[in-house]
Fold this sequence. Notes:
The complex is a heterodimer of chains A (580) and B (319).
Chain A: H1 3-17, E1 32-43, H2 51-54, E2 65-76, E3 79-89, E4 92-101, E5 105-117, E6 128-131, E7 139-148, E8 156-169, E9 177-198, E10 203-226, E11 229-242, E12 247-251, H3 263-267, E13 275-279, E14 285-298, E15 302-315, E16 320-336, E17 339-352, E18 355-357, E19 375-377, E20 383-394, E21 400-413, E22 424-439, E23 442-454, E24 464-465, H4 483-486, E25 490-491, E26 500-513, E27 516-529, E28 537-550, E29 558-563, E30 566-570
Parallel strand pairs in A: 7-10
Antiparallel strand pairs in A: 1-2, 2-3, 3-4, 4-5, 5-8, 6-7, 8-9, 9-10, 10-11, 11-14, 12-13, 14-15, 15-16, 16-17, 17-20, 18-19, 20-21, 21-22, 22-23, 23-26, 24-25, 26-27, 27-28, 28-29, 28-30
Chain B: H1 2-6, H2 10-25, H3 45-51, H4 53-59, H5 63-67, H6 74-79, H7 83-88, H8 108-112, H9 125-129, H10 153-156, H11 160-166, E1 170-171, H12 181-184, H13 199-205, H14 220-224, E2 234-235, H15 247-250, E3 266-269, E4 277-280, H16 284-289, H17 293-296
Antiparallel strand pairs in B: 1-2, 3-4
Helix pairs in contact in B: 3-4
Amino acid sequence: MKRPFIKFLVVITAISVLPFFPSLGFSEEEPTSSVWSLWLGGHYTGYEDFYKKVGEFDRGEKEAMPEVSLSYSGYKGDQSWDFFGHYYDPKRIFFDLSGRSKDILSGKVSYRSSYRQRATDLLENLMAREATNQAADTAGGKMFTYEHENPDADFGYTRHELKTDFKVKVPGSANLILKAFHRSILEKGDDQKVVSMHCSSCHMVSKCAEVDRRTHTVSAGAEADVGPVFFSYMGSYRTFKSEAPTSVAFYDTAEHPVKGTMRDEFGTRTVFNGEEVPFGQIPETEKMAHTLKIKTDIGKNGNILGSFSNSQAKNKSAGLKIKSNSGSLKYVVSPSQKTKIVALASLALIESDEAQIDLPLWRDGLTGGGQDFDWTRYSNLTRTVAKGSAKFIYQPNRKYRVFLSAGYEGTERDDYPYFEAKEKTTKLKASVGGRYRPNSKFLGRVKYSFQSTDDPFSPYEQMFEKAGKGVLEKLPDNGTYYYFQRDDLRYGSVTNQPSSLHGVELNLNFRPNYKASLSAGLKASRGTNNDTDSLDFERTQLQPQVSVNLAPTLKWNLFGSLAYMYGKSNGLAAVAMMDG
Amino acid sequence: MLKFLKRFSFKGSVGAILGCILSLLFLSSVYVSGESPPDAVQVGDELCSACHDEVNQQFQKNIHARLAVGDENTCEACHGPGSKHAEEGNPALIYNAPRDYTSTGKNLCTTCHQGRAFNSWHGLTHFEAVEGCSDCHKIHSEEKHLLAKQEPQLCFDCHTLKKSQARMPSHHPIMEGLVSCLDCHSVHSGDVKYTVGDESRELCLSCHTSLQGPFIFEHEPVNEDCGICHEPHGTIADKLLIQNEPFLCLSCHPMHFHVTLVGYEGEFSAPMHPERTGLSTRDGMKQAMLTKCTQCHSEVHGSDLPSQSISGAGKALTR
Lengths: 580, 319
């Protein structure tokens, strides 16, 4: 951890703790209580196989590790404070300090660190090559090979997070509250970076890349009741910067992948050729957001909550921006003691900058060359999203409750990646459910939901290639068709998103007395998409569960549960259809 | 169990569920609804604690008790006048808020806990689903936030699917206590915790800030919804992916350049680079199934740097 960051954390922590000190000076007459506990223990974890995956967040030291936690909670009069700290190992420490002084000042500061162990990809799957004949018994042709610079490396990084949160009620004002929030995240360590360096033989190289990512967020705002109307404003500013040195790789001079010749020909097809260039570069970014909320009662049994938000995210390295403006309304009304209606509506407009991509001319100076592949990158994030829903709840008595809801969601994109599809995705949602509670001992709940999606998200490049060389135009002065031309011949839509989704939930709970309860449940969902013209897709999930809870005294609680989850996806995997 | 699940019939299960519901409707019903009679009067905390001493002991450290210091009728502030209940010991003669909960009418807790953090509590899914605030809160407890259990177990009691997912090989470190359910979910307000408009991304990007962009070369589903590729609570596949590579990628990019023909068996060297050797087997197709797309397309979330091929327009996200 670099010193400036440590200083920053120390300053923030010191400032955060200051408000708690005045709360320690109380008169002895005020009621006082304090409870504290110290817990000492240890842990041992051993993993024999796949320990980097199973122990992604829990390294597991093959030795007993001491552990300690301390909690303290106290109050004097109307002032209180709480502390909880836990030391698990040197890379996993947690503390949380919060306090409240009268009804005026409240604050919280918390810190947590953890270590994320990253698995090392040994790249062994890349040992492959093509045969040069149909019988597949002659070596030759292209192949994948790899080079691992750190096969025994223990990649991973430590994450530190510090948060502070304060609220101050302005003295003399009835309900004006000022709020401030801060959050810093530092991730530091190293990680594996794989890069393709040699065009001629698909040669991949694994390198060690330093991780040093820093995120800072500060927010400030206020909320107040002005007559019958509640106002809330929050402004937030977030920055991200990677302080790690940029990784670089030398890209060989491009050449024919099998013959190793034709460097002029292949060299002019690549953006860079025989040079050292950066890779894995993370841009510096920032984001500013403003959110305003207003709530007021409407009539005796209704209220309306409105919110408006404006945000701007910026990639400072590339000079690109995303602007967003959105608004939402939520109206809740109880026409009678037995009914309630909840209506929601929202509209969001998101605009992402275009980017001009300048590339060298393709096969410049060669026969049929000089093709210009410059293009303008339009973003599919530029979109208008409209949502609306309504829910009706009817509770004739305390035994029964039923609800019915319906919703709409429309997403209209300016630049859709699936070029022949409609640019709009429309979702219609509906759900119905109920609850039955004949007495205080038994409860049953059931819910069914359905979602129909017209044109779910689909990728740009599609499934099959038409037998269409005849419809392609050869490049000027060139007798060859190129692979990039064949992209235009692809057809057949494909997606992993369902157009139809059914879901069922059932829960039964039996509580014979306040010392015991038994519950059982089932959740099931099935998503399908039969609308594509190339393959059907389906995904099924099923999860039954049962649990028992026993609390013989207020100090004892025994809990056991068994949950089983079954998931299945069906889709077509099509590989190697277009041999290069 | 597995055999049963393999034979799982969706239509059959719907029938079974409906059967359960119908059978429930025939269960006997005696609803316990306590209420202070109109002629009952307040008796004070001391008398209440004579019978409910265990509850009273705990309640003394409760935030409600601390806020009501000096008040001798703390219990009756919520339960109503208790003289009739004290005389007869009948639970039906004292008001019991958890048993009075309806999602359509007024509720005792929300008479104080309204506005601010509870701005959109009414109409929220949690508000409709629970049987009262006491589902999650022990109102007399001395625990922080009066929680009946500590999270994540409190949340997992109802959200059992998430409980299963949190125990899968790849998971957010919820069980390790490094991530809290409340880091992402706002249980009372239901408000979008982050900027409205791009909320599905913003929730993830508030921690995974390095992926915010906007990038010059984008991967469209990253703009669309992180959930197209990731299940945030936990998955069997690596990196919270809903399927392992290459199958997840092939579900959108099936027509891809691959070195996957059934191949030569034995040692080999590169034609132009004899120093590079490898082992090829006849399991070429299987080898293809072991392809990890992100070994080449390492910057799959987006990049400002163009990839190698000009005819690919630099957008292959390889560097």
